[in-house]
Amino acid sequence: MVQNPVVLIKTKVGDIKVELYPDKAPITVANFLKYVENKLYDGTSFFRTVTMDNQPTSPVKIEVIQGGQVVKEKEYPPIEHEITEKSGLKHKYGTISMSRTKPGSATSSFFFCLRDEPELDYGGKRNADSQGFSAFGMVLSGMDVIKKIHQSPKEAQRLVPVIDIVSVTLVK
User: Fold this and answer.
1) 87 in a domain, yes or no?
2) What pTM was estimated for this model as a whole?
3) Domain total for the chain?
4) Which residues contact 128 (CB under 8 A, 6 or more apart)?
5) For residue 9, how far is the Cα from the chain centroid?
6) What is the CATH number of the domain that holds 155?
7) What is the C-alpha separation between 65 and 116, in angstroms, rounded?
8) Is there a domain that residue 1 lies in?
9) What is the pLDDT along the chain (172 residues), one digit of tens a residue?
10) Burial class, 95, CB count within 10 angstroms (exposed 0-12 / middle 13-18 / buried 19+)
């Protein structure tokens, strides 16, 4: 049996261990691992937290934390959008997914779901295009850290201060 890759995200407030699913989301996992292998996530941060009370104009409420934004000069080209309808993955509690503005625009930034988020799947209403986001893995441990980040001080949706990502490494 082939074992899925596992990454360890070390932050200033604790560690998060994540299993990736290359058999279901091969493009997204390969992209994420390219950033990991080249240590481009090291020194980035979790910078955004979306809570039930800080998205007043959105008709579809979600709860996520977002991080891993690499400086533009070091970003790889955007990747093809892998929809959840094809991957079979859903945005459940503990899912990791790629951030994007429009389909085919995802680069480095990723987010974690703090609850089941069907509106982030293909056909969901969070985005007007209904294409959803590219889910590509699941938290194995560290949901307590994700919750701590989610509840950290913020101004609107910006964490103040940001939560440093010390390193992201492939677990052997």
Assistant:
1) yes
2) 0.96
3) 1
4) none
5) 12
6) 2.40.100.10
7) 14
8) no
9) 669 999 999 999 999 999 999 999 999 999 999 999 999 999 999 999 999 999 999 999 999 999 999 999 999 999 999 999 999 999 999 999 999 999 999 999 999 999 999 999 999 999 889 999 999 999 999 999 999 999 999 999 999 999 999 999 999 7
10) buried
